[in-house]
Amino acid sequence: MKIVLVNPRSRGPGNAGVVRAGRAVFPPSEISPHLGLGYLAAALAYAGEEASIVDADVRGLGVDQVVSECQSHAPDIVGVCLLHDTLPDAAELARRLKRDLNVPLVGGGHLPTLSGTWLLNHLPELDFALSGEAEDALVLLIRHLGRGARWQERVPGLVFRDADGPPRMTGPAPPPALAALSGPVRDSSDFVLRAQAHYGLPRAMRVLASRGCAHRCAFCSVAAFCDATSACGADRRRTRPVESVRDEVMALVDQYDLETIYFSDDDFIGPLPQNRERVLALAQALEMMQRRPQFTITCRVDNAVPELLEALKRAGMVHVGVGVESVSTASMRLFRKSTTTDDILAFLEGALALDTSVSLFMIIFHPTATLEQISANYRFLDSLGYFHGAIGHRNAYGCLVASRLIVRRFTPIDGIVAHLGLHRGYMASNPAIAAYDFADPRVGTLWSIVARETEGCEQDAAAVFSDALHRVMRRCGSA
Question: Could you please report the per-residue DSSP string of 4-54?
């Protein structure tokens, strides 16, 4: 059976400067193939099925182009990746695919996992949705599709429409064993490498050393996804064997002559102390490689202790991104995040002592933000010399992201904002994203001024936002 897997374009709502008229603001900080669809394609190929990937987000394809390319493959079924930020394009794409190809459509990703029944009601063109990590479930769907009475019951994690009732889901699907997975298919690698060269980016590919996150930040769709997938008893965060990660990195470096690996783990290090030995072993394995690439990671500040940062630096780490969110205790309580300002400062001291570039991800504006909290976050950044280039928010690998909280549907923060009476329903342009009021109208006014300062800018999105924040805060006398 032939299946085409589609990654729609993302519109990234909410971040000032990220998107202009539905298109990304370039130059991007990285370009790389979609790993999730790559793993699904690999599982299908291993099962003897024919799978192709159309990555509209990476390749910048419009709906007409995606439909045309799908038609050229003459598929028996089409799978669509459905995330909060891709829903607008995914919805239009589903309508066109059903009209022009008239084949079964199945959705997968965060939205089907958080509420597949809502998704099937919202997108009647979708025939099915798969909840959780779907490598095994997608193979079962293709094998059982339409074969026998109540065939759907043989596919765990499947959301489907009963003939006489609303959408419902079969039992939860256990996630696959990471050690048993084939490496991801990388259909768009040639395009990616050409695009990287065009934008002056390093030759790079993404690699996953783990899946999931052990933490439960209220705003994070990954955390909500892990809540749903752990319902069958699986660990929220699972790791691949060190040898498997090393072998994949070696193969990619040799095949594509790579300079850089982007580790795409949601939390590369993981909770301590239980992950200490594994991180040290992985660092040593990478350090011992004959052709050793540089690499980047994302982790939590409270796990990025000096011993591990030093080992990873020796192995080739050149950049680390961390979710700082806020230096306000009240904001961190809202976000259900336990890291402290002391954790942040300790991390920065260790990382910068190693001459490692850093991305600090912060949420400056949110429903209960006060002017005092915004000013404290601004002064914290200014004390680091961020606005004067000491941290370097325009480096080759990443930048500080300081913006407005995006409230994604079905995440804990969605319910929290509703409980606070600040929820204004969901955006007409994207019903997977909530609109909200600021508790303090002055914060709303300040946000409007900062957002207006970014209009029409065609530069790095986070740098534009940060520069606008700096100008506005100086005018307000907070510098």
Answer: EEEEPPP--TTSTTTEETTEEPSSPS-----HHHHHHHHHHHHTT-EEEEE
Name the β-bridge partners of 436: 423
**C-alpha Rg value of the chain to the nearest Å:** 22
With contact defined as beta carbons under 8 Å apart, do 253 and 286 qualify? no
Report residue 423 as tokens. Answer: 């929820």
pLDDT tens, per residue, the chain with 479 residues: 999 999 998 865 333 323 333 333 334 567 888 999 999 999 999 999 999 999 998 898 999 999 999 999 999 999 999 999 999 999 999 999 999 999 999 999 999 999 999 999 999 999 999 999 999 999 999 999 988 888 999 999 999 998 777 899 998 888 999 998 999 999 889 999 999 998 888 999 999 999 999 999 999 999 999 988 777 777 899 999 999 999 999 999 999 999 999 999 999 999 999 999 999 999 999 999 999 999 999 999 999 999 999 999 999 999 999 999 999 999 999 999 999 989 999 998 888 889 888 888 889 999 999 999 999 988 888 887 776 654 444 333 334 555 889 999 999 999 999 999 999 999 999 999 999 999 999 999 988 888 777 665 544 555 666 677 777 777 776 54
Q: Which residue has the tokens 């929820």?
A: 423
Determine if the pTM surpasses 0.85: yes
Sequence-separated (6 or more) residues with CB below 8 Å from residue 418: none
E-strand stretches of 49-146: 50-55, 77-81, 105-108, 128-130
Tally: H helices and E strands in the chain: 17, 19
Tally of CB atoms within 10 A around 233: 7
User: For the chain, which domains are there?
Assistant: 2-169 (3.40.50.280), 202-315 (3.30.750.210), 324-405+440-479 (no CATH)
Question: Phi then psi for 221, rounded to 5 degrees?
Answer: -70, -25
- Three-class SS of 164-226: CCCEEECCCCCCCCHHHCCCCCCCCHHHHHHHHHHCCCCCEEEECCEEECCCCCCCCHHHHHH
Taking the C-alpha atoms of residue 426 and residue 434, their distance in angstroms, rounded to an integer, is 4
Rounded to the nearest 5 percent, the helix, strand and coil shares of the chain are 45, 20, 40
Please name the amino acid found at residue 333.
R
Query: Any residues with CB less than 8 A from the CB of 256 and at least 6 apart, and which?
Result: 189, 193, 203, 205
Strands (E), 92-154: 105-108, 128-130
Alpha-helical segments (H) within 357-422? 371-383, 412-419
DSSP calls for 302-354: TT--HHHHHHHHHHTEEEEEEEEE-S-HHHHHHHT----HHHHHHHHHHHHHT
* Burial (CB count within 10 angstroms: exposed 0-12, middle 13-18, buried 19+), residue 156: buried
Backbone angles phi, psi at 126, to 5 degrees: -75, 130
